[in-house]
């Protein structure tokens, strides 16, 4: 009997020989992790046994690389994976930890309901707390703040975080709030913005998190960016990044010239409505941007001449207002439907 597939999707993996980072199709099984060069490949490029392995997350061995986790096997071999965004990393980490625990206990992997009727007083679920903080209606409001002739976009102050924790009864007092906020910072759920908060996070201050109106922080996948007081041209250039991120993840994209397919990380923003795509293996700047205002997005059959080189289903096409065609491929029919719906909403509401 073949091992059960628990989770699969694109992750960026660090090579064990040349130490380069490349996107891989990764499959989590009950007893190990297989990784493939392409989703359509029949044989994996490698396999990581989970029995006796340990998992480290967040893994901060690579400076600016975010959402990295590390698996260390019994032979002391380290395998590094990078997710596209925080929730994706946490989902992989949860399932891998559970798979390792099931192997140790001789149990079968089975998902349980996440509904909880009682909140344990001594247990704090940082992942759930983070999602509540990001809630568009009841969460922490993201602002554009100015300090030292710089504008910090999509961020908030340290005292706002503590205020929110106290007012939502997540903590009993501000001192306890500092402890929780420091844990959120240490786990990568919050990021420091500006010298004051960065210095505190680096250990210069007594507490890594500051309950201070001059200390700025941001959510790691919020679209945060900082800009100096600049010319009008620079401001216009930055305008496309001001939109709120409503969806992100890895998709296959067909090139316009060679018509070859490559894995790209996509970030969908609305108001203004843009779909930016990045090299998932690294690089802070996007490789390109698709302006979605007035676009048309539809599913595509794989028999189409335009996509004849693709080996999979789940294709869809974006036609911009300027009549530029983009062919993209999701991993599953469900994922394709979700992307199409999200893009349609953004194209109608964004500028």
Automatic annotation (TrEMBL):
<feature type="domain" description="PH">
    <location>
        <begin position="4"/>
        <end position="101"/>
    </location>
</feature>
<dbReference type="InterPro" id="IPR037371">
    <property type="entry name" value="PLEK_DEP"/>
</dbReference>
<dbReference type="GO" id="GO:0035556">
    <property type="term" value="P:intracellular signal transduction"/>
</dbReference>
<dbReference type="InterPro" id="IPR037370">
    <property type="entry name" value="Pleckstrin"/>
</dbReference>
<dbReference type="InterPro" id="IPR001849">
    <property type="entry name" value="PH_domain"/>
</dbReference>
<dbReference type="InterPro" id="IPR036390">
    <property type="entry name" value="WH_DNA-bd_sf"/>
</dbReference>
<dbReference type="InterPro" id="IPR011993">
    <property type="entry name" value="PH-like_dom_sf"/>
</dbReference>
<dbReference type="GO" id="GO:0030836">
    <property type="term" value="P:positive regulation of actin filament depolymerization"/>
</dbReference>
<dbReference type="Pfam" id="PF00610">
    <property type="entry name" value="DEP"/>
</dbReference>
<dbReference type="GO" id="GO:0030036">
    <property type="term" value="P:actin cytoskeleton organization"/>
</dbReference>
<comment type="function">
    <text>Major protein kinase C substrate of platelets.</text>
</comment>
<dbReference type="GO" id="GO:0005886">
    <property type="term" value="C:plasma membrane"/>
</dbReference>
<keyword id="KW-0677">Repeat</keyword>
<dbReference type="GO" id="GO:0002576">
    <property type="term" value="P:platelet degranulation"/>
</dbReference>
<feature type="domain" description="PH">
    <location>
        <begin position="244"/>
        <end position="348"/>
    </location>
</feature>
<dbReference type="InterPro" id="IPR036388">
    <property type="entry name" value="WH-like_DNA-bd_sf"/>
</dbReference>
<dbReference type="GO" id="GO:0070493">
    <property type="term" value="P:thrombin-activated receptor signaling pathway"/>
</dbReference>
<keyword id="KW-0597">Phosphoprotein</keyword>
<dbReference type="GO" id="GO:0044089">
    <property type="term" value="P:positive regulation of cellular component biogenesis"/>
</dbReference>
<dbReference type="InterPro" id="IPR000591">
    <property type="entry name" value="DEP_dom"/>
</dbReference>
<keyword id="KW-0007">Acetylation</keyword>
<dbReference type="Pfam" id="PF00169">
    <property type="entry name" value="PH"/>
</dbReference>
<protein>
    <recommendedName>
        <fullName>Pleckstrin</fullName>
    </recommendedName>
</protein>
<feature type="domain" description="DEP">
    <location>
        <begin position="136"/>
        <end position="221"/>
    </location>
</feature>
